[in-house]
């Protein structure tokens, strides 16, 4: 049976004239709910300058890609009615003073984490892939760890922060890493050890609940899925579909390795953090740490190594050609980080760069 995949995307609400983020999520969500007659796929997020949608679980990646495009278009329509636009940007290129959303949970985060909460106006993409059990899920988590940094590089879409070029391709990943539970995870070895670790982290009182387990990949606390959380939101919806396709390939490849008795790579968290930093810094423009060696290698070679690693799973799910074409496309056209920088280089205006990204968000 082919595993199902669901995608959660966070989008930035911006002023169509100035390009600056706008705190209009309440109005946009109300309009989206009215248009959907009460059954909206959109939700509020930590800041009022953003909103989130979630797709249905899909086995067919073409259907998933189409739903991502539809959901972005619906977000754009509702935002336009509220006097804004949506942009699939992982950070705002222009300066912004974020507004914390309403609700007791968000107030708790603001009180507990102070400036870290205030500065978390970041938009990510979370990919859920179905697993048969927690035991299989944890086996998958243990085996996909070295490849998560490659997914970050592929999705990198946040080169600007508060009006400045950060020199990173994914500065969102650096900001997100300020949460105490964010980042790479250790080898767990069993579902029991995973759950014991989660319970211990929540019991410290530093985290509010299991929803604050911000590992780069985790067992979802709501669905029978592995949830890969490492990626920036992708500017191009086709790249989001490619990301989801590769994540499903990784999950299936890891599950097969577990069933065959193949052990996970025993890399420590320190090396995985180095790989994530390098991916966030260079995206697909320079070198990455190759998951097989943890030594520098050209980013295209590492991305092709990921394709080779999951090739059998992609072939069995019917996604081989689509994934190959997607990888070739992103290497040719560039990630969102490159597209943003190219737009700024052409125009000298971050506003114009945001305007171009608003158009590209819908594909």
UniProtKB/TrEMBL annotation:
The keyword ATP-binding applies. Keywords: ATP-binding, Ligase, Nucleotide-binding. Its EC number is 6.3.2.2. Gene3D superfamilies: 3.30.590.20. InterPro entries: GCL_type2/YbdK_subfam, GCS2, Gln_synth/guanido_kin_cat_dom, YbdK. It catalyses: L-cysteine + L-glutamate + ATP = gamma-L-glutamyl-L-cysteine + ADP + phosphate + H(+). GO terms for molecular function: glutamate-cysteine ligase activity. It comes from the Bacteria. Belongs to the glutamate--cysteine ligase type 2 family. YbdK subfamily. NCBIfam families: gshA_cyan_rel (TIGR02050), PRK13517.1-1 (NF010041). ATP-dependent carboxylate-amine ligase which exhibits weak glutamate--cysteine ligase activity. This is Putative glutamate--cysteine ligase 2.
């Amino acid at each position: 049976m082919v595993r199902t995949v669901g995608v959660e995307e966070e989008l930035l609400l911006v002023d169509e004239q100035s390009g600056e983020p706008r705190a209009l999520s309440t109005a946009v969500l109300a309009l989206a709910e009215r248009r959907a007659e009460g059954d909206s796929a959109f939700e509020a997020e930590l800041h009022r300058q953003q909103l989130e949608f979630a797709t249905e679980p899909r086995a067919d990646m073409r259907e998933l890609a189409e739903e991502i495009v539809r959901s972005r278009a619906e977000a754009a329509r509702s935002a336009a009615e509220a006097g804004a636009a949506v942009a699939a940007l992982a950070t705002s290129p222009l300066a912004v003073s974020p507004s914390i959303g309403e609700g007791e949970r968000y107030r708790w985060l603001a009180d507990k984490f102070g400036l870290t909460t205030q500065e978390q106006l970041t938009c990510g993409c979370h990919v859920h892939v179905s697993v048969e059990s927690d035991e299989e899920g944890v086996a998958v988590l243990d085996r996909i760890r070295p490849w998560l940094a490659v997914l970050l590089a592929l999705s990198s879409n946040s080169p600007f922060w508060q009006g400045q070029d950060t020199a990173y391709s994914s500065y969102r990943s650096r900001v997100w890493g300020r949460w105490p539970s964010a980042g790479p995870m250790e080898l767990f070895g069993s579902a029991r050890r995973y759950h014991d670790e989660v319970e211990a982290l929540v019991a410290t009182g530093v985290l509010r609940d299991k929803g604050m387990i911000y590992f780069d990949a985790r067992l979802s606390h709501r669905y029978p899925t592995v949830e890969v959380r490492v990626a920036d939101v992708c500017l191009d919806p086709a790249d989001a579909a490619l990301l989801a396709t590769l994540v499903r390939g990784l999950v299936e490849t890891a599950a097969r390795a577990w069933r065959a008795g193949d052990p996970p790579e025993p890399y420590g968290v320190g090396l995985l953090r180095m790989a994530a930093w390098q991916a966030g810094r260079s995206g697909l423009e320079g070198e990455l740490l190759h998951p097989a060696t943890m030594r520098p290698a050209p980013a295209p070679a590492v991305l092709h190594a990921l394709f080779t690693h999951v090739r059998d799973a992609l072939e069995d799910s019917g996604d081989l050609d689509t994934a190959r074409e997607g990888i070739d496309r992103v290497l040719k056209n560039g990630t969102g980080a490159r597209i943003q920088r190219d737009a700024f280089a052409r125009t000298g205006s971050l506003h114009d760069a945001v305007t171009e990204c608003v158009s590209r968000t819908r594909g």
